[in-house]
Amino acid sequence: MNSILFALLGGALIGLSASAMLWLVGRVAGISGIFGGLLSAPNGDFAWRAAFVSGLISGGLILLMLAPHTLQAPAGRSLPALVVAGLLVGFGTRLGNGCTSGHGVCGLTRRSRRSLGATLTFMATGALTATGIRLLLGGVI
Amino acid sequence: MKSFLAIYASGVLFALGLGIAGMTDANTVLAFLDLAGGWDPSLAFVMIGAISVHALLHRRILGGTPLFSQEFSLPTRSDINARLIGGAALFGIGWGLGGYCPGPAIVSLVTFTHEALVFVGAMIVGMGLFQALSPEPEG
Q1: What ipTM is given for this predicted complex?
Q2: B73 touching A, CB under 8 A?
């Protein structure tokens, strides 16, 4: 119950932040897009992205100081597995034009068919992967 | 200047939301995606909470103009194609493999764990790889 309440509260803050970004700069708060755009050739777009990512980091520092238990690395995942995971997430979010925040939160709110398709897909493959690792490898890779 | 401060504050809020929600705990994420090992459904409520709040506000916001921008820059495409599904599929596999998606991973950098550093480094490479293979700007 506790975790569900925190999930709802945390989700509400995320929704608030997404609303703020829409109101402030008229953009979708999709982290893969914001961060990915930082890495592409810098144009006039760079500053606001850097501001947002700096905010993410600062928020992280606040979490680190006040609630470090909320920041946990995955158990049962080797560094090579994390390299592959990172590559897939990096490439996949750019190819698919979004991630959990872009498609899952912002896209679904906008009733985007594309985002529905994307969200259902990454939820499915995410579950298949994590569950498969549990069933076939005992949860360790 | 004010605009950057406000955007920065949104980023802080986003990170705090992720932390409170449990998204920055990769084990909580994996417990949600892993349907076999003691399933923890609580993360479903993160999206429910986020969409609920955002949905309440976004229609009103779209009725006006952005505070610091001339116009809204929203995705316009509505077609579902192979790139979208393929990309989402790959992203999901990476998410289920690592327990991190982009936002939580970036936030987790502050811990300086090997896991967070390696994941984000690889994520940057993966994004760069996509960039190198398709130089046209993505909508």
Answers
A1: 0.96
A2: yes
